[in-house]
Design goal:
The chain is of the alpha+beta class. The chain has helices at 16-32, 54-57, 76-88, and strands at residues 3-12, 37-42, 64-73, 107-112. It has a domain at 1-65: Alpha-Beta Plaits (2-Layer Sandwich), CATH 3.30.70. Strands 2-3-1-4 form a 4-stranded antiparallel β-sheet.
């Protein structure tokens, strides 16, 4: 069964283009290591919640936007083999491709796909 890594982050709105470039460079590396697809989405209609919401989860500030992303893998096994290589890839080092957002507020997790229609 396919596997998905999901991500939600708060990105300074002024860094939109830098984020897109960062994501494009990262997508190349992920796909070289077996990812089927990398999707990055810039928040367009992300309501504020009172109890839970994307904005609350990432502690979005007024000058930030919410980004929702996922990486589609053929299987968890492929992802498990790829991630150490991806993390060591020099093209993703902070000196070469710095994250244009606060990584401490990045939410992520791996998910087994149970419905894909």
């Amino acid at each position: 069964m396919s596997y998905v890594d999901g991500f939600v982050a708060a990105v300074p709105t002024a860094n939109r283009q830098a984020f897109i470039e960062h994501a494009r460079q990262a997508a190349v590396v992920f796909k070289e290591h077996g990812a089927l697809k990398v999707v990055e989405c810039w928040g367009d209609d992300v309501p504020e919640g009172e109890v839970t919401s994307f904005t609350l989860a990432v502690r979005r500030q007024p000058d930030e936007s919410v980004v929702f992303s996922w990486v589609h893998w053929p299987s968890r096994e492929v992802r498990e083999q790829a991630m150490p290589k991806i993390m060591e890839d020099p093209r993703l080092s902070p000196e070469v491709n710095p994250m244009p957002f606060d990584g401490k507020r990045l939410i992520y997790g791996g998910f087994e796909m149970v419905v894909d229609e």
